[in-house]
TrEMBL record, chain A:
Presence of keyword Oxidoreductase: no
Family in the record: Belongs to the class-V pyridoxal-phosphate-dependent aminotransferase family. NifS/IscS subfamily.
Keywords: Aminotransferase, Iron, Iron-sulfur, Metal-binding, Pyridoxal phosphate, Transferase
InterPro entries: Aminotrans_V_dom, Aminotrans_V_PyrdxlP_BS, Cysteine_dSase, PyrdxlP-dep_Trfase, PyrdxlP-dep_Trfase_major, PyrdxlP-dep_Trfase_small
Listed name of the protein: Aminotransferase class v
Listed GO MF terms: cysteine desulfurase activity; iron-sulfur cluster binding; metal ion binding; transaminase activity
Residues covered by the Aminotransferase class V domain: 2-366
Superkingdom of source: Bacteria
Cofactor section: pyridoxal 5'-phosphate
From TrEMBL, chain B:
Gene transcribed to yield this protein: thiI
Pfam families per UniProt: ThiI (PF02568), ThiI_fer (PF22025), THUMP (PF02926)
Reaction equations catalysed: [ThiI sulfur-carrier protein]-S-sulfanyl-L-cysteine + a uridine in tRNA + 2 reduced [2Fe-2S]-[ferredoxin] + ATP + H(+) = [ThiI sulfur-carrier protein]-L-cysteine + a 4-thiouridine in tRNA + 2 oxidized [2Fe-2S]-[ferredoxin] + AMP + diphosphate; [ThiS sulfur-carrier protein]-C-terminal Gly-Gly-AMP + S-sulfanyl-L-cysteinyl-[cysteine desulfurase] + AH2 = [ThiS sulfur-carrier protein]-C-terminal-Gly-aminoethanethioate + L-cysteinyl-[cysteine desulfurase] + A + AMP + 2 H(+)
Domain THUMP: 61-166
Subcellular location: Cytoplasm
Molecular function via GO: ATP binding; CCA tRNA nucleotidyltransferase activity; tRNA binding; tRNA-uracil-4 sulfurtransferase activity
Keywords, sorted A to Z: ATP-binding, Cytoplasm, Nucleotide-binding, RNA-binding, Thiamine biosynthesis, Transferase, tRNA-binding
Gene Ontology terms describing biological process: thiamine biosynthetic process; thiamine diphosphate biosynthetic process; thiazole biosynthetic process; tRNA 4-thiouridine biosynthesis
Principal location: cytoplasm
GO cellular component term, pick one: cytosol
Record: residues binding ATP: M184, L185, H209, F210, R266, G288, Q297
Protein name: Probable tRNA sulfurtransferase
Length: 386, 406
């Protein structure tokens, strides 16, 4: 089996699962309980928070636990919009965000907020100039992803941060769900970032747990009201086994980060270099500094992405059409459409996403299988003729 | 990295003579041995003028951290033992200088020679080593009167010892030389500082801590023990004596007018501390009271409380401001722990309006209403003594489990 769909989800790490199991079995008191079982859980909760903060370079009280990337994004976006509604109702995002960001903006638009969706260039990147022009005195929020989940574009978070230095009251949110552990952290998590989202199951931790970073002093209106956990920002009994598992998974992820990212990049390079000159192949994730090392999106003209996914699946190779969340619903990749890629090519795109568990042998194996598939479809579609 | 082979310790406050001096050196050697006992390879040779430690490959950096906290050490110098050849002396001198020299510093070479058979005399060695260093290092400047660095070369019978650092100890008297006392440790900011100051004058202390379950939590007790663990760095070991106090507090609450709750409670605490002192062979009682800081620490309160004993009650922080005490606590390393908010037995049953000027005769009169002797005996029967060693933790005893999980 070759699993090249790590941007959709990853396999849980056995050590992380062992931690989950031990905590669920032995440290199951409610962290809010006054007795020593509660104390024990509370201590582990805070130790997890501290470890994550240390690894991400933040303060422990800036780390909030949520149910995952979707909740972190919704809390950051709606929480800011509601919190700052007295100061302005204009909010800015890009046109290539994950659905959990894009649809949060759609909902707010329905509630009367003014939304600007920044266009992207042919690499899927927003322009800082467009952002500069979009900002007005009503703007309270800018939300731009760190790494695009469909094609791997690294957004210019550093340049945006420089621009936003001039607008200290605008809350800057970065969806970094695809960006952690890829040796690009400084590019996508700057000191100007106020809010940042992570999802644990993207790095071998359990589902249902994620992080929202909220910079000291920044205000968010909570979406979940209740018992006041997570300093009132996210009520609900803390999911301690998953939190501890996530803390461990981040530690493992960042261990030898550069070496792992290089390995992923090498796999991507091997496949890109093999297929790039074939007629009918369009590569949307070039080998460049501006792209994450682990995502490779390309189209084989004339064959729907879905067909290609199933053909590879028959050979026990698992990939996606573009974002897995959209794979079953949308007909076309939203990022590619925003890049003004022709519809018929956009619908032919597939996404390979690697992680540190993948090997060069798997890349070789993929190439072998892909060549056969390619030859078959090329013949049908007369690719490379004329 | 320079690898030191020995450490030379110079004694502090050695105006003492004769038997006292022997006791001073003996205690200091014992205390040094105790703080270094996890390095069995180390040899400690106490002599009448200085103490000589042979590291035998133990890392000086770690030893250094420990020696910094031993009372009775004035200064100490790490040294390197080398064979008695000029070549070895020069080579090691250069290494040492390169490790410690910073641009702009002045230096001199200071040779002492107890082996008068050695082929060079002190002046020759000074000159040759000085020249050797000048040839190999930039920006060196000699200065005879007040050099920043002194390279000391001692030529002895067995070998040559070279050092160029003079490190400062914390001074004071070796713990134990001034005798034994009990310390009333609450868990706040002041009493750990008072403990430190008692030890600084050579007093061997044992902690007396009052706890009142279920009114106080296990954590308050653990916190006091952990503070003791920090303070044990200064002497190697401290006995921690936990005294159950709930019954006394409940009885006082039931039978004594509110304005005197606190005064009578304190009288009981002092009586218990005095009993324990007697039992343990101590000579005095120390506490962390600071004049006027709270209702129980006004001079009037001290009169009404101190009444229960004629044993010396010594209050090392009596005249310090809170800010001075906090500064001290930060230096000692107890502040962060002291401010952890666990309710201790001084705050529970605290009356809303305690008398700041209690009357001695009233305090006596109210206390007479109680079966004081019975209460004290029962509390004494319940005391629990635990030896506590440097940096032992009690509060956070799951940290290792957390680390393993994460």
């Amino acid at each position: 089996m070759i699993y090249f769909d790590n941007s959709a989800t990853t396999k849980i790490d056995p050590g992380v699962l062992a931690t989950y199991d031990k905590v669920a079995t032995n440290i199951w008191g409610n962290p809010s309980s006054l007795h020593k079982m509660g104390d024990r859980s509370h201590q582990l909760l805070e130790a997890s928070r501290k470890q994550i903060a240390d690894l991400l370079g933040t303060k422990p009280h800036e780390i909030f636990f949520t149910s995952g990337g979707t909740e972190s994004n919704n809390t950051a976006i709606k929480g800011t919009a509601i919190q700052k509604r007295e100061f302005g109702k204009h909010i800015i995002t890009s046109s290539v965000e994950h659905a959990s960001v894009a649809n949060a903006f759609n909902s707010l638009e329905n509630l009367g907020y003014r939304v600007t969706r920044l266009p992207v260039d042919k690499e899927g990147r927003v322009s800082v100039n467009d952002l500069r022009n979009a900002i007005d005195s009503d703007t309270t929020l800018v939300s731009i992803m760190g790494v695009n989940n469909e094609i791997g574009t690294i957004q210019p978070i550093e340049e945006i941060s420089d621009l936003l230095e001039n607008y200290p009251t605008i809350q800057f949110h970065v969806d970094d769900v695809q960006a952690l552990g890829k040796n690009i952290w400084d590019k996508v998590f700057t000191p100007r970032v106020d809010l940042m989202s992570l999802s644990a199951h993207k790095f071998h931790a359990p589902r249902g747990i994620g992080v929202l970073y909220k910079k000291e002093g920044k205000m968010l209106s909570p979406l979940h009201d209740g018992g006041g956990q997570e300093k009132g920002l996210r009520s609900g009994t803390e999911n301690l086994p998953a939190i501890a598992g996530m803390a461990k998974a981040i530690r493992l992820l960042l261990d030898d980060e550069a070496e792992k990212a290089n390995r992923e990049e090498a796999i991507k390079a091997k496949i890109v270099n093999h297929i790039k000159d074939k007629p009918g192949i369009d590569i949307f994730s070039p080998l460049s500094e501006g792209f994450a090392p682990h995502i490779l999106c390309f189209a084989l003209e004339g064959i729907r992405g879905e067909t290609l996914v199933h053909t590879l699946e028959d050979q026990d190779i698992y990939v996606s059409t573009t974002s897995a969340c959209a794979s079953k619903t949308a007909d076309e990749a939203s990022t590619l459409v925003s890049m003004r890629v022709e519809d018929k090519i956009a619908t032919s795109a597939i996404r390979l996403s690697f992680d540190e568990s993948n090997t060069m042998e798997e890349a070789d194996q993929f190439i072998k299988v892909f060549d056969k598939i390619y030859d078959h479809f090329a013949k049908i579609n007369h690719l490379g003729e004329n | 990295m320079v690898k030191y082979t020995e450490v030379m310790i110079r004694y502090g406050e050695l105006s003492t003579k004769g038997k006292n001096r022997k006791d001073f050196i003996g205690r200091l050697a014992g205390n040094v041995t105790r703080v270094l006992n996890d390095f069995p390879e180390i040899e400690i040779h106490p002599r009448h003028d200085r103490m000589h430690i042979v590291l035998n490959d133990a890392p000086f950096e770690e030893i250094d951290k420990r020696l910094k906290k031993v009372f009775g050490i004035q200064t100490y110098s790490p040294a390197i033992k080398v064979p008695k050849t000029l070549e070895d002396i020069e080579k090691t001198s250069l290494e040492l200088m390169q490790a410690t020299f910073k641009d702009g510093m002045t230096f001199k070479v200071n040779t002492k020679r107890s082996d008068h058979q050695f082929e060079y005399d002190t002046n020759q060695i000074n000159n040759m080593v000085g020249d050797y260093l000048f040839d190999r290092m930039d920006n060196l400047k000699a200065e005879m009167k007040h050099p920043d660095l002194v390279l000391r070369i001692e030529v002895r019978q067995d070998a040559v010892y070279i050092s160029n650092q003079l490190l400062h100890g914390i001074g004071g008297m070796p713990v134990g030389t001034a005798g034994k006392a009990v310390m009333m440790l609450s868990g706040g900011i002041d009493s750990p500082v008072a403990s430190y100051l008692a030890m600084k004058r050579g007093v061997e202390i044992e902690m007396v801590h009052f706890f009142s379950p279920p009114y106080t939590t296990e954590k308050a007790l653990a916190k006091a023990k952990e503070l003791t663990g920090i303070l044990a760095n200064f002497c190697g070991k401290i006995n921690f004596i936990a005294v159950p106090f709930a019954e006394i507090q409940e009885t006082i609450k039931e039978k004594i007018p509110e304005g005197y709750l606190m005064t009578v409670q304190r009288r009981f605490m002092l009586q218990l501390a005095d009993r324990i002192r007697e039992q343990r062979g101590g000579l005095a009682i120390f506490n962390g009271e600071s004049v006027g800081q709270v209702a129980s620490q006004t001079l009037e309160s001290m009169v009404a409380i101190n009444d229960v004993t004629t044993t010396p009650v010594i209050r090392p922080v009596a005249t310090m401001d809170k800010t001075e005490i906090i500064e001290r606590a930060e230096e000692i390393g107890t502040f962060d722990l002291s401010i952890q908010p666990f309710e201790d037995c001084c705050t529970i049953f605290a009356p809303p309006r305690p008398k700041t000027k209690p009357k001695l005769d009233k305090a006596r009169e109210y206390e007479d209403r109680l079966d004081a002797e019975g209460l004290i005996e029962r509390a004494m029967a319940g005391i629990n003594i635990t030896p506590i060693y440097p940096n032992q933790t009690f509060l956070d005893d799951k940290a290792q489990e957390d680390a393993d999980l994460l």
